[in-house]
Amino acid sequence: MTKRFDQIIVGGGVMGASISYELSKRGYQVLLLEENTIAAEASSAAAGMLGVQMEFEADSPLFRFAKESRALFPRLAKELLEESGIDIQLIEKGALKLVYHQDEIDALKRIASFQTQQRVEAKVISPATIPEKELANDFYAALYCPTEGQVSAPHLTKAFAKAAEHHGAVIMEQTKVHDILSENGQVTGVKTAGKAYTADRVIMTCGFKSSQFPQYIKQFTPVKGECLSVITEKPLIQSTIFTEGCYLVPKRGNRIIIGATSKPNQTDKDVKVASVLHLLSRAKQILPALNKATIEKVWAGVRPLTKDGFPYLGEVPDVSGLYVATGHYRNGILLAPRTATFMADIVEGKQVDPSYLATFSLKRASLISV
Q1: What pLDDT does 370 receive?
Q2: Which of 134, 158, 211, 325 is 20 to 30 A from residue 312's alpha carbon, by CA?
């Protein structure tokens, strides 16, 4: 196997896999290095929500970026199935954000108005008109977004990786990168245990583990999230349900993912009893029939949060050819397709949206005091 490539991707989560896929599809010789296995970290822990309208309440470059990314999924689902044989389990059954206090309704109406202006369907509905009849009707109103969707996060990540291999990418698992190699301000490759691989372009997609390279990536906060899944006797909901501090995501096979806690500066994968009890209690209040469900499993993942909440996407200052794509926090699955095309365009030197370039730059003004 040759040790020289056009691009080397460091990190085999959804960002690394999607960028490897996009670049290899464009005809480049790509090497993806993962210290564990593909989708070993947050990309397997994620619930897979494509929550553009649940996450964003005002216009911003990130909102537009997310909207563009969500629009790529229907075509991508078919493409990845053909090229990898993996079904990413795209479900487009909408989402509901419930509020439990009357004084929150005006805020919901403002969000619905903003999103409608942005040409995405959203409306405020009452408990009497809600399409999910198993929900407890003790909420005041809900923001209903019928075009929201979800996928299986691990299936998506593995499909990207498999499809990248289909286009000629080389993927090496259990291969930790110890150092980024450079000479006279130009990246030259990476060093693993006893081996060096050379390339003129290196892209770091290591999630919260990017902190292993502090000389290149500015500070961010690792945020641990705990989740669990249950199996129900029959389908209880079709739409994804959001409330303050809890979400319910219905999957195939009468499976529902319940999440998630948010614990900054924790990187262990332990799941606390108190966290499970809190999530189950809240979920049962939202969906009383969960009382008869069977617990399937519990898990935790760690997500990288930047100071201003925007991801790092672009070239590292003062090191030509070294790029970063990380800091997507809880929207990594949603943002992966657009991140891949954006990063590939930057690597190729193509013109990209200036607002995206400025917002996601590692040199942006909001990071100066970090």
Answers
A1: 42
A2: 158
Residues 131 and 246 in one domain: no
CATH of the domain at 229: 3.30.9.10
Q: Give phi and psi for 281, each to the nearest 5.
A: -65, -45
Instruction: For residue 120, give its domain range.
Output: 95-146
Q: Report the distance separating Cα 221 and Cα 315, nearest Å.
A: 21
Confidence at residue 368, expressed as pLDDT on a 0 to 100 scale: 58
Cα 355 off chain centre by: 21
pLDDT in tens, 105-121: 999 999 999 999 999 99
How far is residue 8's CA from residue 10's CA, in Å, rounded to a whole number? 6
Task: Based on the fold, state whether residues 79 and 157 are members of the same structural domain.
Answer: yes
Q: Give the closest residue to 209 by CA, choosing from 332, 335, 42.
A: 42
Strand duo 246-251 + 4-10: pairing: unpaired
Beta-carbon count within 10 A of 295 CB: 12
Strand partners, 320: 186
Shared-domain flag, residues 248 and 232: yes
Poorest-confidence range of 39-48, 250-259, 332-341? Answer: 39-48
Single residue among 257, 281, 301 that ends a domain in this structure: 301
User: Do residues 166 and 75 share a domain?
Assistant: yes
Sorted by sequence, the CB contacts under 8 Å of residue 315 that are 6+ apart come out as 321, 322, 323, 324, 346, 362
The residue behind tokens 């190699």 is 181
Last residue of one domain, picked from the residues 301, 333, 349: 301
pLDDT of residue 217: 84
Q: Which of 360, 366, 332, 328 has its CA nearest to residue 345?
A: 360
Same domain, residue pair 200 and 347 = yes
> Taking the complete model, does pTM exceed 0.90, yes or no?
yes
Whole-number pLDDT of residue 56: 86
| pLDDT score recorded for residue 365 | 76
